[in-house]
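User: Structure please.
Assistant: Input sequence and predicted structure:
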Amino acid sequence: MPIRWRLTLFIALAIGAILLVLGVALFVLLRGALLSNVENIAERRAERAAKSIRSGETLQADDVQELALDGVFVIIRDGEGRVLTDTLDLTSKGGAAEDPVWKKALDSGKPASGTAEMSGDDPDYIYAVPVDPPPSEAGRARVVEAGKSYEAAMEVVQDVGAILAAGIGVAFLLSIVGAYLLARAALRPVEAVTTTAREMGEADLAKRLPVANPKDEIGRLTTTINGLLSRLESAFVRREEALERQRRFAADASHELRTPLTAISGHARMLVEWALEGDPQRAKQSVGVIHREAGRLRSLAESLLTLTRGDEGAPMEVGRYDLGAVAKEATETARSAAQGKVSVDFVPIDHEVTATFDRERIMQAASILLDNAVKYTPDGGSVTVRVEEENGGVALAVSDTGIGISEDQLPLIFERFHRAVPSRSEGGGGLGLSIARQIAEAHGGQIRAESTPGTGSTFTLLLPKRP
């Protein structure tokens, strides 16, 4: 059964139960009040008549008729139950023993009540009060009865009951209609969400579900689903970007591998066909080219393997080290490799700058930054290395006086196989800065690049003290 109909049934039954309970309670209270009113009137008339008799007054016909107003009948009996005065003409009917209420009151000496068929209307409420006569009439004990028919009250009760039953029925039907309309209005946002969700596809995750009221339960649910859709959209975008990077990476890797392989293949064929015997000098040059290109292939393969391991989250051997010592060692290695063409200097620091990192991988990242700085700095230029604490972490900065990087190229330099100046790459694979950034991010850090074309660049490796 749909939720709409379940809500309608539940609300209608709840309202119907409430109406039924209220109707029954009202009927019972009204019936009790009407019957109690009949009894109160009869009791007051009986007490009034008894009071008059006790005081020694003689009830005249006018007095009896006054007591018999509003449908009340009055009967005065002697100690034997014989009717002395009545408004129902019971004497002619032999009604001395027709109702037992007077007997009960006479025997107990206390007022008694009950029902009997006295006036012909079914039933009559009878209230009997024993009367002690004055001393002058001590031999004549009396009982005063007053009664009133329930018929008029019961007619009102029946009419009210019929009205209540009809009202409850109409109200129940209206509650069903109202509950249905209320359930439909409450679930209308769900219909809108369902329709929108049905129209959405994998390629249409930019759509969002409509939120009618963000503060109610359905609104909060829809808002949560929209948040999930946003995350899914971001995940799909990242997936597409990753696939695009993979395709570009495969294409670039194929291109980078093809160049040295072509050179190796060509020189090897030349050696086989004629150079080994016909031109020893040429053969020697070809062997050198093959050796150089093989080294280039090995370096490229190692870089690709490093990137792959980083992408897979290879474990690191971290410890507590002095970043200054690592930077100094990398500077000395780079100075030796520069062979005096470029000045490579480490700015000394008077205290240790310690952090938690994988020493070998941070050494690799520092070497990459220094190698790039030396490579893109003209002869006679300088490269400076500094280590300091920065923003609660540690920083290794490599500055050079090289050719610099243009503003449009600066965001791309960490892309794989990207070269800011292809003509000055000197056979590099364009993977160094990608590896350095991967190492920094694996430690929870980053690499910041600043550059001014024609003046130089500064690359800063930032690491947290405790990643």
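The chain has three domains: 3-156, 217-311, 318-464.
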